[in-house]
Amino acid sequence: MSVLIFVETAEGKAKSSSLEAVAYGAKVAEMLGTSATALVLGDAQDLEGLGGYGANKVLHVADSRLNAGVIQAYGNVIAQAVEKENAQVLVVAKSALADTVAARVAGKLKAGLASNVVALPDLSNGFVVRRSIYTGKAFANTAVTSDKKILAIKKNIYTVTVTDAKASVESFNANLSDADFGVSITSTEKATGTVSLPEANLVVSGGRGLKGPENWGVIEDLAKALGAATGCSKPVSDLHWRPHHEHVGQTGVKVSPNLYIAVGISGAIQHLAGVNSSKCIVVINSDPEAPFFQAADYGIVGDAFQILPKLIEAAKAKL
Amino acid sequence: MKILVCITHVPDTTTKIKFTNGDTQLDANGVQFIAGPYDDYALSRAIELKEQFGASLTVLNVGTAETEPTIRKALALGADDAIRIDAEPTDAYFVAEQIAHICKQNNYDLILMGRESIDFNGGQVHGIVGEMLGVPSLSPIMKLDLEGNVAKMAREIEGGKEYLEAKLPLVLGCQEPIAEWKIPNMRGIMSARTKPLQVITPANPQELTKSVRFELPPAKGACKMIPADQADTLIDLLKNEAKVL
Ligand SMILES: Cc1cc2nc3c(=O)[nH]c(=O)nc-3n(C[C@H](O)[C@H](O)[C@H](O)COP(=O)(O)OP(=O)(O)OC[C@H]3O[C@@H](n4cnc5c(N)ncnc54)[C@H](O)[C@@H]3O)c2cc1C
Ligand SMILES: Nc1ncnc2c1ncn2[C@@H]1O[C@H](COP(=O)(O)O)[C@@H](O)[C@H]1O
User: Fold this and answer.
1) Range of the structural domain that residue A89 is part of
2) How far are the Cα atoms of A18, A122, A157, A167 from residue A55, in angstroms, in the given order?
3) pLDDT tens digit sequence for A263-318
4) Do A206 and A129 reside in the same domain of the chain?
5) What percent of chain A has pLDDT over 70?
6) B173 in reach of chain A (CB within 8 A)
7) Contacts of B92 by beta carbon, 8 Å cutoff, 6+ apart
8) Residues enclosing ligand 2, CB less than 6 A?
């Protein structure tokens, strides 16, 4: 028996949400009285270091075809690793890739999959997890009744403590056929040098109140001063002021950072759905009646173009 | 070409969620139900492809009789016929098994779904169906074009997108901007009443997860207002009081 954690990498480095998943998985393993194995696919660095997050062992599939996120191949390899390790629980950090891959593993192994998990499982009466539903508007306590269980955890739900422990690394040759690579990735377009929105701990987001793409400098400057990622509301991406992958909300990216700063966003329920699991929300809006203030921890009523320069200056001076 | 679009029947995005029956059930009182917004993107693109290539277009829902208005609306938008698997959609595995069962009998070239349902937000059903059928499943797909039996797609990845090519059949989870949402016209609404809607009993029903109790998040505390002329103090508060910087 064991707990297996799928570690998603970006340019060969474990994503921070995956490191959280390793720590979470290690805790689940401890609760079940078993060991934690981290699974890494493709070329990757610092595998032993995953020991610091609680992994006892790292399984590494060093097949460079897996450097890109090929959904079917990933599903197949992870299912094989679950069998090899006789894993009872598979943990993944929720992402556009991991969700789809976890679903394939669930189909292959007939494993119950709980998504958007926000807490450790309750083992006092079966195996019950708490998960976020209705796009953050509610929670469900869900019993996973199958033998094999898969948990897709939300970001920022488990406190990670890092030690200097090292994990042992074992290479694993999974069986892959051409059929697993039937989908070809012809090219990729990716913003570089900026903080990735779903992974970010701090987010500065702008809405239609900013009036036009030419005014985004203040959002970017504040984000830069804080080390934050930038986001936007749906109309902003619909109007092509900002790229689609920055659109936050019900139909966009769901974020759960420590801090979400919303500037010139009214706070429509569909926008709130994407941000309601943020730890702290700051709202800057010229309209004191803007509904977003009801979901905020800190609010400033005023013109964004006067307030943001002051914040940028203060952030530069004090951080 | 044969296209299947799988749609959910879910509370409107503006719904204030409440529970009833000892927090074991959604309180549907006053709730307006719709097809999921992502399902609408899938359906909208399917309608465009049908117009372009003369495909047949079937919509499918796993749900009880209450979902029929949502199915009829999809027929009004342009689907040719519909299938309803008459069951409470208890979990993703159960739903996927029903969909896969229908797919095995019908050889669809394209099976389009939403990237995720907006009730349980699992984003699972397309992946499980893909695995059950042994065909690729891809999500979230934001662009889809067909050239013969090859699909050319864009998929959203963190911080950007990747362009993909694959042979049909495929299972895809869709999101914007794959197509613009469509509005039914009068002729569509009239013809939807007579389009075939087949009701089928579920095959091999089994679930692997079960929600035992629902909860609402704790109420949010009051918002601390900072005067605009003291905006710079926000940084101190975030650092020393909220401790998020
Ligand atoms: C099915 C569905 C799904 C949706 N999904 C999403 C989603 O995922 N994400 C999303 O964001 N929306 C979504 N929407 C749209 C949503 O309903 C709102 O229309 C949208 O969020 C509004 O964007 P906004 O706040 O930027 O613009 P507006 O509502 O126009 O608000 C602009 C705000 O800026 C303020 N403002 C103006 N000037 C200034 C200034 N100088 N300084 C400071 N403040 C100023 C105004 O007071 C106002 O509050 C969805 C809608 C539907 C129907
Ligand atoms: N009960 C259902 N009936 C038909 N299709 C469904 C059902 N549940 C989910 N789907 C499809 O699967 C997609 C993903 O759903 P989910 O995995 O529940 O997030 C949805 O957008 C639908 O296209």
Assistant:
1) 2-181
2) 12, 21, 18, 6
3) 999 999 999 999 999 999 999 999 999 999 999 999 999 999 999 999 999 999 98
4) no
5) 100
6) yes
7) A103, A106, A113, B120, B122, B124, B125, B128, B209
8) B 6-8, 36, 38-39, 60-63, 89, 92, 95, 113-114, 116-117, 120-126
- Asked whether the beta carbons of A236 and A208 are under 8 A apart, the reply is yes
Within a domain: B234: no
Q: Which of A220, A276, A259, A225 is nearest to A243 (CA)?
A: A220
With beta carbons less than 8 A apart as the criterion, state whether A284 and A261 touch.
Answer: yes
Whether residue B147 lies within 8 A of chain A, CB to CB, comes out as no
Looking at the 3D structure of chain B, how many domains does it have? Answer: 1
> Are B64 and B85 spatial neighbours (Cβ–Cβ below 8 Å)?
no
By Cβ distance, the residue of B119, B130, B228 closest to A134 is B119
Q: What percent of chain B has pLDDT over 90?
A: 93
Q: What is the mean pLDDT of residues B23-52?
A: 96
* Dist CA B228 CA B238 (whole Å): 16
ipTM: 0.94
pLDDT at A192 over 80: no
Give me ligand 2 centre to Cα B122, in Å: 9
Decide if B21 is inside a domain.
yes
Is residue A273 in a domain?
yes
- Nearest-neighbour CA in chain B from A55: distance (Å): 25
Residue B159 — very low, low, confident or very high, per pLDDT cuts 50/70/90? Answer: confident
Q: CATH number of the domain that B114 lies in? A: 3.40.50.620
Mean pLDDT over B114-118 rounds to 95
Task: Please name the residues between 47 and 66 in chain B that touch chain A, using a CB distance below 8 Å.
Answer: none
Looking at the fold, whether A172 and A229 belong to one and the same domain comes out as: no
What region, left, alpha or beta, does residue A227 occupy, with left being phi > 0 and alpha being psi -120 to 50 degrees? left
Same domain, A173 and A209: no
Predicted confidence (pLDDT) per residue in B161-197, tens digit? 999 999 999 999 999 999 998 999 999 999 999 999 9
Q: A250 and A132 in one domain?
A: no
| Prediction pTM value | 0.94
Q: Residue B210's beta-bridge partner residues?
A: A143
Q: Could you tell me the two tokens for B140?
A: 């979230």
| Shared-domain flag, residues A211 and A261 | yes
Q: What total of structural domains would you count in chain A?
A: 2
Q: Which token pair is B8?
A: 């959910």
Same domain, A209 and A130: no
Please indicate if any CB of chain B lies within 8 Å of the CB of A302: yes
Q: Is residue B231 part of a domain?
A: no
In a domain, B237, yes or no: no
Q: What is the pLDDT of residue B220?
A: 84
| Residue A237 covered by a domain | yes
